[in-house]
Amino acid sequence: MLFGQLDPDIFALFAGSNRFLYERVLLGIYQHFYRSDLRFPSEAEIVRRIYEDLGEHADLWREDEAPVKLDELAPRRGKRLRRRNVGTADTQATSEAIIRARHIYNRLRATGWLEESRYGLKVTVDMPAGAMRLAEFLCNLQEGMSEQLGGLVIQVKNELEALQRNARENAPGLHKAARDAASFGRYLRSVLSALRDIDDQVRGSDSVGRRLRHYFEDFVERVLLQDYAAISTTSHPYRFRHRILGALDAVEDSVADIGAIAEAYHEARLAPDAARARDLVYEDLSKVRRVFEQIEEAFERIQQHRARLETRLRNTVRYAGRRGGTFLQRSEPILLQLDMLLERGKPDLEVSGMMERRQTFWSPLLLARPRNYRSPIVGGLLVLPPPDPLRDLRKRLEREYLDRIAVTPEQVARFLEKRVPPFGSSEASSFWIDSVDDFLAFETLRLSVLASDEAGGGNAVANYLKSGFRFTRTDAAGVDNAWLSCAGFTVTRTADHVTIEVPHAQ
């Protein structure tokens, strides 16, 4: 449970008016002592770190919000601190900062962010596991996720390709690839959410200055230069999308690889039994496939929001001067004088003001250039090349090949009706294969049985066969013949109707 791992008062630091100060201090402590280094600081070191953050961010705790210079502190053994006077330091501000640093340390302990641990005579300050995870999330939220998620697409590709080389040893990589794909999907949603938020802020701005600040600080720096640049260059999913989907197809089509991955999942205790492990394998494969098959809509929405924001930026810059009134202030007196001259009817009068006299500039480069010579359009016969018999033969063979490998549910039904008696059952290992068409029908049936759900449906072939056949997966008798080797299954025919063979339309 979430609140079973966190202190009940852990969010109390951010409920008051000093939440920005506590945020800066907490992130400074976590990044300095607990994020990357395996350090065990004492209370004096923690207080000294808080004191340094107070000196760097005096605007967060002083009423005048003015920068201040403090004395230096040197930690001693235990909880004591030694103060080193600096000539230009503010003595009063130093004393106030020391008192405030100890108060902040006690608040961090009271709210569950820090805890003291004793090892013999030495007392160190540690951060609990739940608080450490929460602090890491706050750091990622502050830094942005573009750096952490920059190579997720490449990682997913490498993990799936490693499965093809050795499914048994690299099986945990599939589970990690599913998590990475889900993280990349959430990353795209966060970019889209940031663009929507900036769009709302721009529309709600009441001045040109605020609108431009939202454009350049939020849109350009935070989204366009970080997140959008990351997903458009190194993490662009279209670079490796087809390779990822191809690797998924290869893993799903290999029954041996699925079984090896499921056994590794079961040994790693990711699932309680073999059946649950196999279901988890298909679920992880489906997660990766859903993300990379549905990224087109997310990218289209991101492009639309980006184009809308860039158009509004151009319009804001274009009409910024006019909205401020400078254009109207310059043009209003000139237009009034022109109206007065038109009423008087006196020609050849000069108007005093900022309007300059029209001058004609002469230059050979300003003259109109003659058009290039164009050949006249004349009628004639359009000579078509003679048909190539080799090209026509190749097109016909390609069409016949595609028609042959596109197995329909009716072909699978006729294949089963010849091998399973009405209201009877047969093992898949007893099915004879006489031709390539029989092999294609059996392969389509095998993949349909693997991808079907508990009710016997889930795909086009299984939904069609569900009315006349029932399939049961079994590991007792596997299929091993001259055509293929795979896991076995049982087919039960629940009716006696015959599928009519309909020839292809020419």
Structure, described:
The chain is 56% helix and 7% strand. The protein is mostly helical and 506 residues long. The strands form 4 sheets. The protein has a 3-stranded antiparallel sheet, with no helix packed on it. Strands 1-2 form a two-stranded antiparallel ribbon. It has a two-stranded antiparallel ribbon with strand order 3-4. α10 crosses α11. The two termini are 64 Å apart.
Can you give keywords for this protein?
mainly alpha, 9 strands, flat, 506 residues, two-stranded antiparallel ribbon
The number of distinct β-strands equals: 9
Radius of gyration: 37 Å
C-alpha geometry = flat
Strand content: 5-15%
Spans of 5+ residues with little confidence (pLDDT < 50)? Answer: 145-150
List the SSEs and their pairings.
Elements: H1 2-5, H2 19-34, H3 43-56, E1 72-75, E2 81-84, H4 91-110, E3 115-119, E4 122-126, H5 129-143, H6 152-165, H7 171-203, H8 208-232, H9 241-253, H10 255-267, H11 274-293, H12 295-318, H13 320-323, H14 326-344, H15 389-405, H16 409-417, E5 425-427, H17 436-451, H18 460-465, E6 469-473, E7 479-480, E8 485-486, E9 489-493
Antiparallel strand pairs: 1-2, 3-4, 5-9, 6-9, 7-8
Helix pairs in contact: 2-3, 2-5, 3-4, 6-7, 6-9, 7-8, 7-11, 7-12, 8-12, 9-11, 10-11
